[in-house]
């Protein structure tokens, strides 16, 4: 999830466990601890595929973070004893708070589609795909706002809510408890809506007479109302299904024809490029697609005329993959692909056409949530009869 969501989650958890003793400091400490696992982004790797696939690994491991929480609490407690400043709470309570703040971060991340290695270092050698529940978007204000309220009130009021003299919100700890329950209920709602969206996608494919080998459903906007499913049929062609939970009909679908030659391209990968492709394949759960991209003459300074590109199919807007990499290239004179150190794939648009920004694509998608008639058949979208 985004950094703000992790900050408010960490602050709320620490506020629940230690707000009575630490007051405002509980929420401050929680914000710091809640962002700690994401500091792995400061580690630089030699290529963008490594940057992507090694993020959310050791720093998001439940095993590692549990040890960090317990050992960190013990060291803090020992330090206070050494300074003859005993803590007003037990080391066990401090260890519980630190461990919960640290481990809820990757657990929340696992609800997104990106993939989180909750059981590092066991996942890679055991070929366990990173956990990707894919029921919430990486930014979701409806999840974040309740916890943000708990953080703001906790920072302003410390441990007591002076405006409330009785009832459920008599102190900030109880407010944080209720906000955590509310945000967690939203996650449960997202699971139910995902199940509904996936069922609708399966009905669409059945109505269209398409037999599929597998599929994956995920939200595509900062809301749980709009869903996207990627499927592979029995001919190994890739299909995209898109729909809103507000639709009165089945979702629309289209074939992702740019990946029709994916298997042949994968087979033609140079040997030096295969470890990168295998790493990305493992990380995405085999939801990747290969395509060839022709470079305009103006960008051919390197002499390459074609690029062999691999896209992460889980995160796309329209035909643009958010994570797209060049694994090999070749010039007009070459017949074989030449391996290169992976780079982020440039977006190549047809002549005289401007590239749509991601913001524009998301805005168009948001309109689609409430208007099921927004289906561009020129882009290959088809609608099946519900009957």
Describe the structure.
The protein is 42% helix and 17% strand. With 387 residues, the protein is of the alpha+beta class. The strands form 3 sheets. The protein has a 4-stranded antiparallel beta sheet. A hairpin with a 7-residue loop joins strand 9 and strand 10. The longest helix has 36 residues. The model has no long low-confidence stretch (mean pLDDT 90).
Provide the descriptors you would attach to this structure in a database record:
4-stranded antiparallel β-sheet; alpha+beta; 387 residues; single chain
Element layout with pairings:
Blueprint: H1 3-22, H2 24-35, H3 48-54, H4 62-82, H5 91-109, H6 141-157, H7 172-207, E1 212-221, E2 223-233, E3 238-244, E4 252-255, H8 262-267, H9 274-284, E5 288-294, E6 306-312, E7 316-317, E8 320-321, E9 324-330, E10 338-344, H10 358-370
Antiparallel strand pairs: 1-2, 2-3, 3-4, 5-6, 6-9, 7-8, 9-10
Helix pairs in contact: 1-2, 1-5, 1-6, 1-7, 2-5, 2-6, 4-5, 6-7
On the 0 to 100 scale, the average pLDDT is: 90
* Contiguous uncertain segments of 5+ residues: none
Give the end-to-end Cα distance, rounded to a whole number of Å.
39 Å
Compute the number of helices: 10
Q: Kindly name the structural category.
A: alpha+beta
Helicity range: 40-55%
* Envelope shape: globular
Tell me the β content. 15-25%
Order of helices and strands: HHHHHHHEEEEHHEEEEEEH
Rounded radius of gyration (Å)? 24 Å
Number of strands: 10
Strand order of the largest sheet: 1-2-3-4
The largest β sheet comes out as: 4 strands, antiparallel
């Amino acid at each position: 999830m985004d950094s703000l969501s992790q900050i408010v989650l960490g602050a709320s958890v620490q506020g629940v466990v230690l707000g009575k003793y630490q007051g405002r400091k509980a929420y401050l400490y929680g914000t710091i601890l809640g962002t700690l696992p994401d500091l792995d982004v400061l580690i630089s790797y030699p290529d963008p595929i490594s940057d992507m696939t090694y993020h959310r690994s050791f720093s998001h491991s439940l095993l590692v973070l549990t040890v960090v929480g317990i050992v960190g609490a013990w060291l803090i407690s020992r330090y206070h004893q050494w300074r003859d400043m005993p803590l007003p709470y037990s080391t066990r309570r401090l260890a519980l708070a630190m461990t919960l703040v640290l481990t809820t971060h990757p657990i929340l991340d696992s609800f997104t589609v990106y993939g989180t290695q909750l059981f590092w270092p066991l996942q890679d050698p055991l070929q366990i795909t990173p956990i990707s529940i894919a029921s919430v978007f990486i930014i979701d204000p409806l999840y974040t706002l309740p916890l943000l309220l708990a953080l703001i009130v906790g920072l302003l009021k410390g441990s007591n809510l002076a405006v409330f003299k009785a009832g459920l919100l008599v102190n900030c700890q109880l407010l944080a408890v209720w906000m955590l329950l509310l945000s967690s209920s939203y996650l449960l709602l997202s699971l139910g809506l995902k199940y509904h969206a996936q069922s609708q996608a399966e009905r669409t494919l059945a109505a269209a007479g398409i037999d599929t080998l597998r599929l994956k459903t995920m939200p595509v906007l900062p809301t749980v109302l709009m869903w996207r499913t990627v499927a592979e049929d029995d001919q190994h062609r890739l299909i995209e299904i898109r729909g809103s939970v507000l639709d009165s009909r089945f979702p629309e679908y289209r074939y992702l024809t740019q990946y029709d030659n994916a298997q042949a391209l994968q087979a033609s990968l140079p040997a030096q490029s295969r470890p990168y492709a295998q790493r990305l394949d493992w990380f995405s759960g085999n939801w990747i697609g290969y395509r060839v991209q022709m470079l305009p003459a103006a960008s051919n300074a390197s002499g390459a005329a074609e690029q062999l590109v691999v896209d992460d199919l889980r995160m796309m807007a329209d035909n643009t993959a958010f994570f797209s990499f060049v694994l090999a290239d070749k010039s007009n004179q070459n017949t074989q692909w030449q391996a290169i150190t992976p780079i982020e794939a440039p977006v190549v648009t047809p002549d005289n056409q401007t590239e749509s920004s991601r913001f524009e694509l998301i805005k168009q998608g948001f309109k689609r949530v409430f208007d099921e008639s927004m289906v561009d058949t020129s882009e290959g979208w088809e609608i099946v009869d519900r009957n």
